[in-house]
Specification:
Layout lengths: L27 H5 L13 E4 L6 H8 L2 E2 L12 E7 L2 H15 L8 E8 L8 H11 L4 E4 L3 H4 L12 H7 L7
Parallel strand pairs: 1-2, 1-3, 3-4, 4-5
Helix pairs in contact: 3-4
């Protein structure tokens, strides 16, 4: 408004106005350091079993990474931890306790819990009680499920990652699903 009550143009000075540049989007390979279309880069993980027979050796052989058995990763092992448990009652209880160990800061310093990997203890669906326990674990951490693989029971790991584990394949950078 101009003095004297007359209306006129008001000018707001914001500084120099330049023509906007075209928005730049970096190429995916430059942005992430990986090929845009190709295999995912292998990440390095330590597989840590929450109980005996959890499947750390099998998972390390199929998906890659370091098999730490039931021990914490040592100084030469990757600090990114994937906890492994079977889907039976004891396995799920042990997985819950191991997750709590990380949540309370009681795990060795320098380790990072990336996810829990649950390996089927039998073919078929989980009983409702066990499925509820899995949902409790999923409420605090990412959970990846590995189905029952009869060939693994017989010691044959040559078929690659089983179907339905694509998310775990992407996480670990393993070769694609084969069964």
């Amino acid at each position: 408004m101009q003095p004297g009550g007359q209306q006129g143009p008001e000018i707001w000075i914001r500084g120099p106005v330049a023509e906007p540049e075209k928005e730049r989007h970096p190429e995916p390979d430059r942005m992430w350091g990986t090929p845009a279309h190709g295999p995912f880069p292998a990440r390095h993980f330590s597989w840590v079993g929450t109980h005996g027979g959890a499947g750390t050796s099998t998972l390390a052989a199929v998906y890659g990474g370091r098999d730490c058995g039931r021990d914490w990763p040592g100084p030469d092992a990757p600090p990114s931890v994937l906890l492994v448990a079977r889907t039976h009652a004891t396995g799920l209880i042990r997985a819950t306790h191991a997750v709590e160990t990380f949540r309370q800061g009681a795990a060795p310093p320098g380790l990072d819990l990336d996810a829990v990997v649950l390996v089927a203890d039998a073919p078929g669906r989980l009983p409702r009680q066990l499925d509820r326990q899995v949902k409790v674990i999923e409420s605090v951490i990412d959970v990846y499920r590995v189905p029952w693989v009869e060939d693994w029971r017989l010691g044959d790991l040559s078929g690659g990652a089983p179907r339905g584990t694509d998310a775990l394949v992407r996480l670990t950078g393993a070769a694609g699903a084969g069964r």
